[in-house]
Amino acid sequence: MIVLILSGLILALLVQTHNPYLVILETPEALGLGLALMVASLLAGYLKKVPNIIWHDGFATAGLIVWYAYWKPEFNEDAPMFFFFPLYFALLSSIMTLALINKSQYFDTESAQHLRYLNKMIRFDMSAAVIFVILGLLITKHYALYPMAMTFFIIRHTITVCLDNIET
């Protein structure tokens, strides 16, 4: 999820330096663009037009744009979540990519079997993760809901992509 990692780092940097271009991300146009990217990513994934790794990255990045555009007017100017949440998403995605996804082709047979078992037994599939992220975006009163939803989405993404890498 390289685009999410870069987007999160850039957004955190812009927020930390109080960049004047942040006003652009608070506009209804930015919200509309994020929603359009989110819908396009979901459709591309549902119709199997792009690999999982691409539509997941597009959905997560679009969610970050929607989150900032939708939530920023609801909270104080100096709310620390606008710096820490994008940084957290970038860090979590980086760790999952470097530690698991990039090494998944080297998993031994037993590890691959455990991952398949976990994938089969987990009650939180990708569609549930997507719905959880969308609900987390809509419910602004619970500011920790969106980062929790994104955490589940990133973990689910990691499992899915690792299994894709093992199967190929």
Automatic annotation (TrEMBL):
Residues that span the membrane, as ranges: 30-47, 54-71, 83-101, 122-139
Alphabetically ordered keywords of this record: Membrane, Transmembrane, Transmembrane helix
UniProt-recorded name of the protein: Uncharacterized protein
